[in-house]
Specification:
This protein has 254 residues and is an alpha+beta fold. Helices cover 28% and strands 26% of the residues. The chain is globular. The termini are far apart. The structure holds 2-amino-4-trifluoromethylsulfanyl-butyric acid and cobalt (II) ion (CO).
Length: 254
């Protein structure tokens, strides 16, 4: 039996504003990183670039040291799903690369991720990225007060599966605030109309991970890097949103 008490911490407008600032720092850093990425670079160069951006904006990396994670950025190439560790791996034309970044500003966390092409990619790979991002927005659209948490999950799954791709089930989205990971967990699959009712003041990091092939993933011996078991390409997009009286507000968009 799981005895852990599940509490969803509601945030005041003031607190949401602080989370928004943390998210904006992440968004600005990711935008700069997008235009920095070129074939021939190592993933470690991306980490160094973005770490500097975070500090320049008066924030701190959120992931570094979290459960001993060794870097600022998670950088996941091709069949890597999430949590790739920056290394001497060289990016090449046609790769896709997931860039997942978190920042702490004035005690509050922001978290966002994108998957981008390195140089030009084939049309079917571009479609994987488009559908994964579209599934994130379909989920966000359900982030409305008085709805249910699994409405988000269900919208994501439907969007992904109608295109014949697979939702990764081993990792989930999460509440966020004074901690990187708060309740509730947000699966990217499931029937609608279940789980906690969505309330004004909830702040959620929604993050679908989508495999082109089968859904299974495994974690490599570094203890972090998750890859698709069948070696198929995988994409990941994430936004931090607040549930407001006027609907979902995306905090991590520039
Ligand atoms: N966005 C990811 C997550 O929420 C990144 C966490 S990486 C870690 O799980 F190193 F901080 F764990
Ligand atoms: Co996250």
């Amino acid at each position: 039996m799981n005895l852990r008490t599940k509490v969803i911490i509601l945030k005041s407008d003031k607190e949401i504003e602080k989370i928004r600032i943390a998210c904006q720092i992440v968004a600005i850093s990711l935008k700069a990183l997008r235009s920095f990425v070129k074939p021939g670079m190592t993933t470690r160069m991306l980490d160094a670039f973005v770490e500097k951006k975070i500090y320049e904006q008066g924030a701190k990396p959120a992931f570094k040291g979290y459960h001993n994670y060794p870097a600022t950025l998670c950088v996941s190439v091709n069949d890597e799903v999430v949590h790739g560790i920056p290394s001497e791996k060289i990016l090449k034309e046609g790769d896709i690369v997931g860039l997942d970044l978190g920042a702490i500003y004035d005690g509050f966390y922001g978290d966002s991720a994108v998957t981008i092409p390195v140089g030009s990619i084939s049309e079917d790979v571009a479609k994987l990225l488009e559908v994964t991002e579209a599934s994130l927005f379909a989920g966000i659209e359900q982030g409305r007060k008085d709805g249910r948490l699994s409405d988000i999950s269900h919208a994501i799954q439907s969007c992904v599966e109608k295109e014949g791709y697979s939702v990764v089930t081993d990792f989930v989205g999460h509440g966020i605030g004074r901690s990187l990971h708060e309740d509730p967990q947000i699966p990217n699959f499931g029937p609608k109309g279940q789980g906690p009712r969505l309330r004004e003041g909830m702040v959620l990091a929604i993050e679908p991970m989508v495999n082109m092939g089968k859904h299974q993933v495994k974690v490599l011996s570094d203890g972090w890097t998750a890859v698709s078991t069948d070696g198929s390409l995988s994409a990941h997009f994430e936004h931090t949103i607040a549930i407001t009286k006027n609907g979902p507000k995306i905090l991590s968009q520039v």
